[in-house]
Amino acid sequence: MTNAVASDLVESAEQVVAAQGVAKSFSGGSVIALQDANFTVKQGSFVSLVGPSGCGKSTLLRLIAGLIEPTQGHIEVHQTQVKRARQDVAMMFQRATLLEWRTAIENVLLPTEIRRTPSSEDKNRAMELLNLVGLGDFAFSFPAQLSGGMQQRVALARLLQTGADILLLDEPFGALDEFTREKLNLELLRIVSEVKATTIFVTHNISEAIFLADEVYVMTPRPGQIAKIVPVNLQRPRELSVQTSAEFNELVAQVRETLGAL
Ligand SMILES: Nc1ncnc2c1ncn2[C@@H]1O[C@H](COP(=O)(O)OP(=O)(O)O)[C@@H](O)[C@H]1O
Ligand SMILES: [Mg+2]
């Protein structure tokens, strides 16, 4: 028993993403998108990147995903240097980008089909994931028959179908109305804790960043950098009502101050 607890602690402290002195510039160095990023992300934790438009949030995600290379410094995922896109990291965007001529379950199966002919096990997994995101009854619906929020749920199931344990979400619910977004945020917390994923979530909404995260990386522009890392120790599972607590408002004030918005 004691051993099990001890090894759980070691496991939970494992660092799955580490960045050291990471910088990225574009246009021959004239645009510094990101400068001197240093951080480590613990296994199973939830990190929010918050900051105004153009501060380098998407650039940082693309660097972690291996879609672009740093100009300086290096990034490790699972203790190996990121050199290209990899199977343990998956990324999701603001638009669901579902294929219109495929049903929900056929869309979820896409990442599998890219690698192999889906087995009945793969199909069962896709169905399980659709149930997990609350769309079990819509597996055979086409994207045009689903609301924007439902389409993002399909995209989330597709993301999980990749089997990646590190999820990079770039303003995934940013195009949805506030009610739908709050509901999906709650579900996202339930889902990532169920599948034990490590999540890095980009948003420009301060409350949303805090509500979701174990740590908020506050980013400031020109040049883009992580100005502060704010730990969020609100207990889990979280309910929306935590946002009216004094503790929550104190965190909002801390983030705003760093952004120079107070
Ligand atoms: N491929 C690119 N070529 C040139 N400039 C880029 C490129 N990608 C991003 N940038 C610039 O880098 C900065 C950060 O962009 P981005 O990471 O998209 O910010 P955010 O996601 O926080 O809005 C911006 O000034 C943007 O114009
Ligand atoms: Mg962006």
Structure description:
It is a single chain. The chain is globular. It has 262 residues and is of the alpha/beta class. It is built from nine helices and ten strands. A hairpin with a 4-residue loop joins strand 1 (15-26) and strand 2. Helix 5 crosses helix 6 (148-161). Helices cover 37% and strands 25% of the residues. Residues 1-12 have low confidence and may be disordered. The chain has a six-stranded mixed beta sheet with strand order 6-7-8-3-9-10, with helices on both faces. The protein has a four-stranded antiparallel beta sheet with strand order 2-1-4-5, covered by helices on one side. It folds into two domains: 17-88 and 165-262, P-loop containing nucleotide triphosphate hydrolases (Rossmann fold, 3-Layer(aba) Sandwich); 95-163, no CATH class. The structure holds adenosine-5'-diphosphate (ADP) and magnesium ion. Adenosine-5'-diphosphate is lined by residues 26-27, 31, 33, 51, 53-59, 224. Adenosine-5'-diphosphate (ADP) is lined by residues 26-27, 31, 33, 51, 53-59, 224.
